[in-house]
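Now for a sample.
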Amino acid sequence: MPSWCAYNSLLQFLIIFILYFVEVLSRNDNHHQVLKADVGQDIIMSCIFDENKIEQVSFMRQMTGDILSLGSELFVHQSHIELKRFSSNRLDLKLKSVSQNDSGLYTCMLNDEKLMSFLIEIFDEREIKILFPPRFVWYFPLEGSVSYPENSSMNLSCHVFAIPSVNITWIHKNKNKQSKNIHYGEDLYLSSIQPSDSGLYECIASNMYHTTISRAFYVTVQYSPRVLILNGTIRSFPHETILVRCEVCSMPQVDHIYWLRQDQQIKDVNIYIKKQIINDQCSESIMKIITINEYQFNQYECKGENILGYKSDYINLQQISRVRKVKPKIYTDEINRNGRTALLLTKSHKKKKNLTITTTESNKIFLSNSFAKKIEWFWLLSLFINWIRPV
């Protein structure tokens, strides 16, 4: 029994010793030599090793994984890094005039075995040690939605306090939800704004240390009515039905759309006017004239009006006269029968033709009779001359 107790006690002692040894090793493995310096000072990292093993010693920067030296040879070509052999079992790596970029963990290695680690902390006396998240201290306008007249100027502002200071970016998102960066800085100024400048404006503040903050403004650019009659010049016969369409866009929307003729509002019983909304800015008015009469052919005016003013567009309704077509009299017709052309004459035409033929024939007979009489007289005259001439 006593032997068993001794064996048990020895076993507990061994377990405690092993745990202690492992803890000591882990502490040594995680131990770093902390070297602190201000910007501009020099830092020396000394690595001690067994003699005659200098060629197996190297310095490494853990942050970047760069091997700075191997043995007594420096691998990097940086003017502020020097490697010096202090003794047969000591190498010194010197960083001259350090900056904050030199901060980090450096390791001295013997082959793959870590000999020493150096944690370098660089301080700048000018560095701000207190961080403060961004907060809006002032912005303009105070309302989330604001309106500006067309061709006016627009001012938006976002003032933010933070440590370190923030960068402010302005983003514009139009009504088609297309966004783009338009400005950097606290104040946004736009001159001669147009309806296309309407939309959402957002200022975003960030200092890369804290969560970004933003402020949004919805801007509406107001403008007077823009009137367009969609028909061109209309030409029509009387007693037909005519449709005239007029589109009016404005912001705010028009209060009224009027149809005028000779500067007088239309009150004809056969004219009907209908208005319909297209979107948040545009409306359409349709004028329908049923069985238009000749007195209603004239110039018409479509007029839109809102709080910023009014605009008009015009159209002419022109009458087309009905021309009576008279069918010409036809005296002859040509009819093609079996490849031959026959001429058909009307009765009156035949009568005229017969009269012409009769007159021509009578003239011919008269001419022939007079010629015979002349020959007869000439023959008698020749006989008389022969009779009176002496033998």
Observations:
- The two ends are 223 Å apart (CA to CA).
- The CA atoms of residues 275 and 285 lie 4 Å apart.
- Residues 19-30, 331-345 have pLDDT under 50 and may be disordered.
- Helices lie at 2-29, 347-388.
